[in-house]
Give the backbone structure.
Amino acid sequence: AEAGAGGGLRAAAASALAAVGLFCYQRAHPPEPLQLLRAMARESPPLAVCLANGKPTVVDFYADWCSNCKAMAPTMRALEKEYAGRVNFLAVDGADPRNADLVGRFRVDGIPHLALITADHEVETALIGMVPKPILEEEMDALLAAKPLPWVGYDAFRGKSHSMDDIL
């Protein structure tokens, strides 16, 4: 029985070392930005789910060819983790023809295009281009507190309804 217990301890120690090794490898070799964007898109919940759960939503329109999108990918993933369970993050490949309807409905005319939607389904603003993480955090915090956004960008719906009920 003692030999079995020793073997179990060795297996547990080896498993722990393997986990630490994998963690260190992943920290030293983060995923390529394009892989990260595609993974975020695959993992994104459908927009209908986002709108039904009572949380603010960020819709991130990106394209494979967009250097700013790739540069922002690690920031967007970090924000997704930081605000997990409180803010929905939806990544959409804006160059994919299958997403043309959504691109049109959000009036995307520049990539990256971050549409910020309140928990009450109102599109507050769109931030286009490179946006620093601290600004995005301020925006997320304002969305969560149901306060006016400190940074207002492009109003794609000027003079029209900002309600997702009307947009979709």
The longest helix spans residues 2-28.
